[in-house]
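Operator note (shift B, R.M.): manual run for TetR/AcrR family transcriptional regulator requested after the automated queue skipped it. Running by hand, logging everything below so the morning shift can see what happened. Input copied straight from the record, untouched. If output looks odd, do not overwrite the archive copy; leave it for review.
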Amino acid sequence: MPRVSQDHLDARRRQILDGARACFARHGYEGATVRRLEEATGLSRGAIFHHFRDKESLFLALAEDDALRMADVVAEQGLVQVMRDLLSAPADREEEHAADWLGTRLEVSRRLRTDQDFRARWAERSEQLTKATRERLLRQREAGNLRDDVDVGVLTSFLELVLEGLVSHLAMGLPADDLEPVLDLVEETVRRHRRVH
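Run finished. Output pasted below as returned.
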């Protein structure tokens, strides 16, 4: 029997994650039945659960995948850039995909509030974004670009809280056309202000 290439396995995993993201966003965690996951991914339950142990593992992998993508942007450009990307829905993220991402993000928030086991499993995975934000802020402080009168942990929490608020705002379908100046203010808030003599 021929062995399946790693590229094929990676492509299949990506197909499952992309289909599952849309399914979870549209139907919520409970409503994303195996039949709906099969329809959304175009694959059988056997193919889906060959890659993921169960529905919760699939959902966590999806949320982790999103967190890792965001952590990569944070490491290079900061958490405010993640927020700007959400507002502009960049070319590599179709509008429907952005809506699915937001729906998944809200579903994560809901499950964190209502499911203690999920909260414990998610805590292990969600640290990447916080760590990337903190490390970026520390580098900015060392470069003299970050205000030094507020603890980096407080600034990290502040930026994460703004992100959560923005996600909620966008997920509710509220207008976002005028939010760029708000993000400018957020960015200005964490910057070091040099005194002019």
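Quick read of the result: Confidence is low (pLDDT under 50) at residues 90-94. The chain has two domains: 1-52, 54-190.
Leaving this for review. - R.M.
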